[in-house]
Design a protein that fits this description.
alpha+beta, Arc Repressor Mutant, subunit A, two-stranded antiparallel ribbon, 6 helices, elongated
Length: 124
């Protein structure tokens, strides 16, 4: 697949679907807290997450245009954000639209608050 004259990496065939996200959102255990923290710790991923958060949805090409990173890099970071449950990717034709999962971020904040209060992460 080409984008602006450059070859871009094809998107993986499997993106987490609604059932996958339901499992992720059931409980915010320590491993999930660590996964989200690592996903947001990278400055490029944080910029991508912020860009998607400001829009209803964004595709890879839109993120590349805004952030000045290569399509392969964007694709890699989107996969990590998706695996952490922070964004949801939905294929529509040849495009994959990325949206933020607000409930995941809210649960993450709640879990960090519990940790800061000396409590264990909840098993909602």
């Amino acid at each position: 697949m080409f984008f602006g004259g450059a070859r871009i990496a094809a998107f993986p065939r499997h993106y987490p679907g609604p059932k996958d996200f339901a499992k992720l959102l059931e409980a915010m255990d320590r491993a999930r807290i660590e996964k989200i923290s690592k996903a947001l710790a990278d400055k490029t991923r944080l910029m991508i997450f912020e860009a998607i958060s400001t829009q209803k949805q964004m595709n890879c090409g839109e993120i590349v245009a805004l952030r000045g990173v290569t399509p392969a890099t964007v694709s890699h970071h989107l996969k990590i954000l998706s695996d952490a449950g922070l964004i949801q990717c939905r294929r529509h034709g040849q495009f994959v639209h990325n949206t933020v999962v607000p409930k995941a971020l809210a649960q993450y904040i709640q879990a960090l608050t519990r940790l800061a209060q000396g409590k264990r992460p909840s098993k909602n």
